[in-house]
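pls design
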């Protein structure tokens, strides 16, 4: 299975000149813990960074920084790690693990934003797959009963 087939295509985005309050309101409105920061490059939105609810708490609120004067560009993560749509889920999970991140913007061949893959998405996918595997012994028992004379 590829990242492109499973990623969430409804990505909440903003520009780096947005205020932290605007970002926090977007997070609340859309019930998300991250916002992808984009730049217009031609006809596609190119991801250039990400900001998370944790970034806001750890870097601003916990340090008693006044949110009135802070822009997203002041806090966002600039070393953005992305996956390509055709990457495998296993490669994406390995990337998340090795980089120690929970969210992975998904880009197309030209680097345009196509979606996002999160740890929560993977928990859901793997949970469903594991649930299907738990049914194997019961199916096996049914087949054994059907074979008996």
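designed seq:
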């Amino acid at each position: 299975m590829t990242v492109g087939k499973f990623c969430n295509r409804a990505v909440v985005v903003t520009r780096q000149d947005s205020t932290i309050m605007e970002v926090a309101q977007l997070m609340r409105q859309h019930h998300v813990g991250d916002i992808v920061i984009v730049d217009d490059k031609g006809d596609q939105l190119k991801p250039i960074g990400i900001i998370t609810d944790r970034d806001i708490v750890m870097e601003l609120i916990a340090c008693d920084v006044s949110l009135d004067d802070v822009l997203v560009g002041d806090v966002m993560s600039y070393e953005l790690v992305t996956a390509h749509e055709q990457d495998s889920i296993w490669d994406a999970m390995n990337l998340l693990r090795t980089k120690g991140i929970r969210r992975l913007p998904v880009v197309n061949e030209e680097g345009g934003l196509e979606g996002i893959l999160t740890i929560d998405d993977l928990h859901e996918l793997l949970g469903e797959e594991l649930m299907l595997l738990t049914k194997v012994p019961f199916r096996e028992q049914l087949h054994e009963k059907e074979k008996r004379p």
